[in-house]
Amino acid sequence: MCTNSDFTMYSMFDLLFETPSYRQIYVISDREMKELKKNKNQEELDEINNQRIRLEDAFKAQLKHLEEREKEIKKELKVLSASKKEE
Predict the structure, then answer these.
(1) Which of 4, 7, 44, 87 sits at 20 to 30 Å (Cα–Cα) from 60?
(2) In angstroms, rounded to a whole number, what is the distance separating the alpha carbons of residues 77 and 38?
(3) How many structural domains is the chain composed of?
(4) From CA 53, how far away is CA 46, in angstroms rounded?
(5) Per the domain annotation, does 2 fall within a domain?
(6) Residue 55: what are its φ and ψ, rounded to 5°?
(7) What φ, ψ does residue 69 adopt, rounded to 5°?
């Protein structure tokens, strides 16, 4: 059986006061900050280059597919045109 002493009352003030109102702050030197920015920029540049390579590869594959399909269609048209002339 539950009694009133089994329940704890909470209010919005509990959330306000229990939640830390600060965030951790790290102090680093200008040299370290420049190094972090340099590393971040290098990572972004590497990702851009990787994306460019993937896009170029995908483009080449699609272009090859289209060229092959174009050859097939031209071949079919040639066959169809030749058979029409024979009729």
Answers:
(1) 44
(2) 58
(3) 1
(4) 11
(5) no
(6) -65, -45
(7) -65, -40
Nearest to 51 by CA among 39, 61, 59, 63: 59
Answer yes or no: is 21 within a domain: no
Q: Tell whether 16 is covered by a domain.
A: no
User: How would you write the pLDDT of the chain (87 residues) with one tens digit per residue?
Assistant: 555 556 666 676 666 666 666 778 889 999 999 999 999 999 999 999 999 999 999 999 999 999 999 999 999 999 988 887 766
Residue 55 to residue 47: CA distance in whole angstroms: 12
Q: Which two tokens stand for residue 51?
A: 């994306």
Q: Which two tokens stand for residue 13?
A: 């003030």
Question: Residue 46 sits in which domain range?
Answer: 29-87
Q: Is 77 part of a structural domain of the chain?
A: yes
Q: Which amino acid is at 13?
A: F
